[in-house]
Amino acid sequence: MPDQSTDIHKRKLRMGMVGGGEGAFIGAVHRKAALMDGQIELVCGAFDEVPERARAFGAKVFIDPARSYGTYQEMAEAEAALPAESRMDFVTVVTPNHVHFPVAKTFLDAGFHVVCEKPMTVSLQQALDLREIVKNSGKVFVLTHNYTGYPMAKQAKAMVAEGEIGEVKKIIVEYPQDWLLTRLELEGVRQAVWRTDPKQSGPAGCLGDIGSHCANLVHYITGLEIEELCADLTIFAPGRLLDDDVNVLIHYVGGARGIFHASQISAGEENNLKIRVYGAKASLYWAQEHPNYLYVTPPGAPVQIYRRGHDYLSPLAKLATRLPPGHPEAYIESFGNIYLGAAASIRAAESGTAPQERLDHPGVEDGVRGMAFIETVIEAGRARKWTPFKIF
Ligand code: NAD
Questions:
Q1: Where are the strands (E) in the chain, listed by range?
Q2: How much is the average pLDDT of 304-330?
Q3: Residue 333 lies in a domain
Q4: One domain for residues 94 and 156
Q5: Looking at residue 10, what DSSP letter applies?
Q6: Does any domain span residue 276?
Q7: Rg of the chain, C-alpha, whole Å
Q8: Atom of ligand 1 nearest to the CA of 331
Q9: Of 7, 14, 45, 304, which residue is 20 to 30 A from 31 by alpha carbon distance?
Q10: Do both 123 and 154 map to the same domain?
């Protein structure tokens, strides 16, 4: 039974979910992450594009049958018609990419806040349209680039901002995986089927799927904007329609240089996202497969290892942790931190109070920047030359 208090500061936020049904990957992660801090409860959903499967899955996760909807359109209409004390507060969109825009638009138009998976849309134009819709709605829009939710990514951001590594000169970011080395999409693996289909994934394969995280993480940690880039996109698996490997050289505004690669055909790799930031005074190194450690190295001195959970960390890094040092936290908690930020933003928006702590979550501007990055990389790959990056 949802908490029916009318004071948004005195009750859990009510979440609905679109996507994330039987056999889906990230929806289950979102459900665990959103609920882990007791701030949010799941009250409704349209979990699958097939109405019978959607309702059947709702029963599996113990949703009130009256609020386990066959379609997201039905859900938006029915939830908007409920009294304020039981109506959902926000929707989480965990469908394949091509469904993000129509679902986000439907729920923003119906007066709900939105948490949405990346890449935000399937084109830059859609991203720009969504930005207008968000602005006009006055609602909160959160984009789940979850790697920004890790405490040590927050620590890296704080150290760059405070000048601890000096002026940033070079960034190397990489995200190799191997799971699309063969044509898994022909074996009916659902996550591979839609990710390799331009109609569902958008114009990018690996670039949109994991390259978008790399670009977002660099911007989050360094704040740098791209000036121009050149790119090489490859389809290694014969017959596949979208890139499964991408390499990019980047010139940042102000003179920093970047090397970027993302790959889904690199044998033996799991989720080997790594970032190195070289400054005038020291370098930073963070690897998401060992996420509780941040390595800081000045020239001619021993490596310093910053560890999650300690008092010497920045305020946001400390807020983003739940366990004492040495008890590992990782992927699900990183989403949990995005949800804590979303909850704080939604409570502030609903009550007209000043924004509080925990608000450093990605939003619609990051989604626009992400889609501009994807389209510029594709354009540069086709043109085979340095291509300017436009900030929208
Ligand atoms: P998935 O194929 O495992 O799940 C997609 C779900 O959406 C399925 O349950 C499907 O039935 C449902 N769906 C599709 N169309 C729908 C519709 N019209 N209405 C209701 N439900 C619908 O996909 P996934 O791997 O979970 O990816 C989903 C999204 O999450 C993608 O945008 C992906 O890029 C993103 N993702 C992000 C991360 C991350 O680290 N942040 C990781 C994985 C996936």
A1: 13-19, 40-46, 90-94, 113-116, 141-143, 168-176, 226-234, 245-252, 257-263, 274-279, 283-287, 293-297, 304-307, 387-388
A2: 97
A3: no
A4: no
A5: S
A6: yes
A7: 21
A8: 40
A9: 7
A10: no
Here the tokens at position 319 are: 């807020």
Model confidence over 140-177: pLDDT tens digits? 999 999 999 999 999 999 999 999 999 999 999 999 99
How many domains does the chain fold into? 2
**Does any domain span residue 388?**
no
- Does ligand 1 have an atom closer than 6 angstroms to the CB of 18? yes
Global pTM reads 0.97
Query: Cα–Cα–Cα angle for 116, 362, 305, nearest 5°?
Result: 125
CATH label of the domain that carries residue 101: 3.40.50.720
pLDDT at 360: 87
Residues 154 and 301 in one domain: yes
> For position 298, which CATH number holds?
3.30.360.10
Distance from the CA of 3 to the center of ligand 1, in angstroms? 28
Write the pLDDT tens digit of every residue in 37-92. Answer: 999 999 999 999 999 999 999 999 999 999 999 999 999 999 999 999 999 999 99
- Alpha-carbon torsion (312, 315, 320, 322), positive or negative: positive
Q: Is the CB of 191 under 6 A from ligand 1?
A: yes
What's residue 4's pLDDT? 55
C-alpha of residue 163 to centroid of ligand 1, in Å: 39
Q: Are residues 233 and 141 in the same domain?
A: no
Q: Residue 190 sits in which domain range? A: 150-325+367-383
- The span from the CA of 251 to the CA of 109, in Å, is 39
Q: Which amino acid is at 171?
A: I
How far apart are alpha carbons 18 and 67 in whole angstroms?
12
The answer to whether 317 touches 158, Cβ cutoff 8 Å, is: yes
In a domain, 274, yes or no: yes
Q: Is 26 in the pocket of ligand 1 (CB under 6 A)?
A: yes
pLDDT digits (tens, 9 = 90+) for 203-236: 999 999 999 999 999 999 999 999 999 999 999 9
